[in-house]
What does this fold into?
Amino acid sequence: MRTRGTFCVATALALSAAVGCTTGDTEETGRPSSPTASTPRTASPSATTPAPVNPVSIPAMIQRDHKGSGLELGRVLTRTSAYTSYEVTYESDGLTISGLMNIPSGQGPFPALVLAHGYIDPEIYTTGRGLTREQDLLARNGYVVLHTDYRNHARSDKDPDNDVGLRLGYTEDVIGAAMALRSSGRPEIDTDRLGLLGRSMGGGVVYNTLVVAPGLFDAAVAYAPVSGRPEENIDQFQRPEGDPLVAEIESEHGTPETNPRFWREISPLTYVDRVTEPLLIHHGTTDTTCPIRWSHQTVTAFEKAGKDVELRTYRGEGHTFYSQWARSMDTTMAFFDKHLR
It folds into this structure.
């Protein structure tokens, strides 16, 4: 089992290498003159100063001092013989984020899972929507489940720049949820055993989290995930709908053709060498919302980097996982049991 508390240290140690590999565009504009006996050898500032890090990028997230704390239980939503479900709030990146937490009945402490839901219009979203089946089943099988609403959803604080910033704030909120669980001091939670599960858009949040915060979780699962290349998600979901946000994003950050560096640095696939956790991906072969080829390209990138990744495919299954969900969850629970118990 990975020693808890190594996240910050491991991130710091890996930072220079991870960010350095994204600054290859830096040009050396001068060469120091040959030193003499009276002239000490000095490095050229232009040769040693890296290019500025775009604040909307994976390297910027790697550098950031992530914060998550203040987990508070609110009113009871549901009480069953197997678990009690609460409204919760926690602090993430200076914002108050709402969510739902299921705490199993019986003697803890229990391993904990953070759940990252897929896209639901924030205007209609309510606390806990998107992964209700998983919340129930995982809690019944002895896991504390914290389902984050994300910023701009339900009772969470607002972040007006999140959409133009490629929704990287959702990754901050998942990292914050894990850190809030760790620091909660609640006796029901085993802070040494922490897993992550995301669906659809939440699968992309899983990818980001694994590269930004290696060591924070012990294992991760992605269901029918989006592409690890954000430009493909824009072309699949937003551009065909004429979403005006596309023009805002491209005005702010450029297109993949005019600013390839930005799009390279916003993709978690560029940084899969940082991942330390095993990853399990579930994907249906007839998923037309998130094509299965996206998961194949993610697996290829992980395997090329020598990472522990497994793709389970489900013939004839679409994006919703209605017909084979139970079988996929048996696999998911066996995976979490292996790495968290």
Notes: The chain has one domain: 7-26+43-340. The first strand starts at residue 68 and ends at 79. Strands lie at 68-79, 83-92, 95-104, 110-116, 144-148, 189-199, 219-223, 279-284, 309-314.
